[in-house]
Amino acid sequence: MEGNSQVIFAVVVFLCTYFLIILDKIHRAVVALLGASVILLFHVIEQERAVEAVDFNTLGLLIGMMVIIGITRRTGLFEYLAILSAKLSKGEPIRIMISLATVTAVVSAFLDNVTTVLLIVPVTFAIAGKLKLNPIPFLLAEVIASNIGGTATLIGDPPNIMIGSATGLGFMDFVKALTPVVIVVHIANMIWLKFLYRKQMKTTPELQKSILGMDEKAEIKDLALLKKCVFVICLTILGFITHQALHLEGATIALAGATILLLITLDDPEPALASVEWTAIFFFVGLFIVVGALEEVGVIEYVARQSLALTGGEMVPTGLLILWLSAIASAFVDNIPFVATMIPLIRDMGQIGGITDLNPLWWCLSLGACLGGNGTLIGASANVVVASLAEKRGVIITFIHFTKVAFPMMLMSVAICTVYLLIRFLIPAS
User: Fold this and answer.
1) Which pLDDT value is given to residue 154?
2) Per-residue pLDDT at 328
3) When comparing pLDDT for 412 and 345, which is higher?
4) Taking the domains of the chain in order of start, what are their residue ranges?
5) pLDDT at 323
6) Sign of torsion, CA 121 125 127 132?
7) Fewest CB within a 10 Å sphere: which of 109, 154, 167, 396?
């Protein structure tokens, strides 16, 4: 297969893979691996080049953090934080909603969003049950906060991990560039939710006192393990903060942290390794190969040239195009394959257009892709997981209801980011 036929075949495989991922009838890991297999079987890209297309730094960072989280979740730390925040809110429903959402946002900045909501949601149902309130406002606040908080750091959301690995941007680069606007976005969203649900979040003084009677200390299941986990998490975060100065990749830090925790706990490593979401890891592998084929046959370069022609290669219109396209697209399709496609595209735009500083465009991509996931129920994995957990408890969060609440908030979030990016990055770089 040569020339134009190779290009057409690569594009068709990519579009079919994307379509099947959106359709969600076959597991996305199977779809991605199928696409990669077809690419390899028809020699669109040779195996050696396919291996080079796989970003092992992203995979290593994900695996390392998943192992650390898998061990830490056995301690009861996250349940402790949720109940403590509810008690500090004095049983006031609106304050509890904002407190739980803020805890979710902070934890999601350092841990996987899906894991965070898996741990917070059961406690949320317990608290809402004691207050005899509809749990949906709490759940929506938490899932929106998880996607916002995950935007703040290198390790908070897979798109950021992918961007950091592809560009060499470090943990502190993400914190300095994104955390200020993420804090503003979170506050704005909490104010909006408080206004939206102010009439629904009413309870009695007696029920509020029942929250104060909950014992957060009883949630700590293994204090000795908790101390070890907190030590390793702090050590790992310190490693992320200093990894550029130490000339170490993020994957090295995460895998070293996971290994240290496995060593000092002296447990059988099998349960910890079983907590790794291997389906997600293989999804990434297949996806990297499918996108790598597009890059190999020149499709990415062609799209980059057309994008530059549309924006004139100017920093401001290019950045805003990336931000809003990423946000709208990520509201309806998985942001991981979208970001995997955009990374080589932006890189080629820099080479072709002569843009020397691409960092503003990476921040546009990160904010658009991560915050865009709040737009609809299928925009981010955490959204789907929360809806599934709620359904098991007889609470239905419909696509329409989620979108009616969340999509305007997503647009507000991206509008705030537009102003921030223009002032801090895009206009100074133009």
Assistant:
1) 92
2) 92
3) 412
4) 135-203+298-430
5) 96
6) positive
7) 396
23 Cβ contact list (under 8 Å, min separation 6): none
What pLDDT score was predicted for residue 225?
94
Q: Which of 144, 165, 60, 149 is nearest to 112 (CA)?
A: 149
Q: What band does 301 get if pLDDT is binned at 50, 70 and 90?
A: confident
- Type of residue found at 400: I
A 10 A CB-CB count for 41 gives 8
Q: H-type helices in 247-334, by residue range?
A: 250-265, 269-274, 278-297, 299-311, 315-332
Per the CB < 8 A criterion, the answer to whether 363 and 323 are in contact is: no
Q: If we measure between CA atoms, which residue out of 138, 55, 53 comes closest to residue 93?
A: 138
- Cα separation, 192 vs 210, whole angstroms: 27
Q: What does the pLDDT read at residue 194?
A: 94
Nearest CA-CA partner of 288 in 247, 219, 343: 343
> Burial, 229: exposed, middle or buried (Cβ in 10 Å; 0-12, 13-18, 19+)?
buried
Contacts of 2 (CB under 8 A, 6+ apart): none
pTM for the whole structure:
0.83
Q: Give the whole-angstrom CA distance, residue 67 versus residue 134.
A: 34
Q: Single out the residue of 290, 427, 292, 283 nearest to residue 364, CA to CA.
A: 427
- Could you tell me which residues come within 8 angstroms of residue 335 by beta carbon, excluding any fewer than 6 positions away? 158, 159, 326, 329, 369, 370, 372, 373, 379, 380
Asked if residue 125 lies in contact with residue 135, where contact means CB atoms within 8 angstroms, the answer is yes
> Which helix or strand (DSSP H or E) is residue 404 part of?
helix 399-421
Token readout for 261 is: 């925790």
For residues 99-123, average pLDDT: 87
